[in-house]
Design brief:
By secondary structure, the chain is of the alpha/beta class. It is built from 6 helices and 12 strands. A 9-stranded mixed β-sheet has the order 6-5-4-7-8-9-10-11-12. The protein is elongated.
Length: about 250
């Protein structure tokens, strides 16, 4: 008999849990949406969209949510609605026990701003190589690409280079603009130093930037920041400089 007691207790507990969960599920089907709470994960880094914008997108694209049963609200459809927006990278939703719909949004992160492109107008390229429009509300602090830039070149060539700059704290702080005269003649404009940096093509860009790093550390320190008007990285392992006329 004693051996059966634990078994009976376990069986009773199991039956209780099943009944409780079934009851909770039936009651949950009756719960109404009582509110919407939006969280934008990277709001401090980018401000392309705000909480009120997310709620407005949901109402316009889906309809009113409040006072509707939560089991009748299609969260997958709402998530896809938000992801279709050009500045939103991801969206996840869930209801709490009180019926509040929690919406977690992540914005896309630009690494390059293209101006005066071949196709006209400007746009961003994000950290996954996707085109995203400029915003009238917020201007991201990223390197600017200007000149003779097609979208194909921006995405396939300029984006990986901009990402290389972004992932290096020194270059991210130092390089302000990339001027594309042609695919084989690219000029860098630094934030410090009154000279142009001739990169040439984007081939071997990482090696060229390392040459530049050592030159800025040793060569410029000896000659001074105003000694040259041009620093050329096109010639193999050499850094060729043009002095400023006196």
């Amino acid at each position: 008999m004693k051996k059966k007691i634990p078994y009976l207790l376990f069986t009773c507990l199991f039956v209780y849990v099943v009944i409780a969960l079934t009851f909770a599920a039936s009651k949950r089907d009756e719960v109404l949406c009582t509110g919407v709470s939006v969280t934008i994960a990277d709001a401090d880094a980018n401000s392309f969209i705000e909480e009120v914008d997310v709620e407005r997108l949901m109402r316009r694209g889906y309809g009113e949510l409040l006072e509707h049963r939560i089991n009748q609200i299609d969260k997958d459809k709402l998530e896809q609605l938000l992801i279709n927006n050009s500045v939103i990278k991801s969206a996840e939703m869930y209801f709490d026990l009180g019926g509040t719909l929690h919406v977690d949004v992540t914005q896309r992160r630009p690494v390059l701003r293209v101006m005066n492109s071949k196709e006209g107008g400007g746009y961003y390229v994000d950290d996954e190589g996707e085109i995203m429009p400029l915003s009238g509300r917020y201007s991201a602090r990223v390197v600017i690409g200007s000149g003779n830039i097609s979208r194909k070149f921006a995405v396939e060539k300029l984006y990986p280079y901009a990402l290389l700059l972004r992932e290096d704290a020194f270059w991210d702080a130092y390089i302000e603009q990339i001027v594309v005269k042609s695919e084989s003649h690219i000029i860098l404009i630094p934030k410090v130093g009154n000279f142009d940096i001739i990169l040439g093509s984007l081939d071997n860009a990482e090696m060229k930037m390392e040459k530049l790093r050592y030159f800025l550390k040793d060569g410029i320190a000896k000659k001074g920041w105003d000694a040259y008007k041009e620093i050329n990285l096109k010639f193999g392992k050499q850094v060729v400089c043009v002095k400023r006329s006196q």
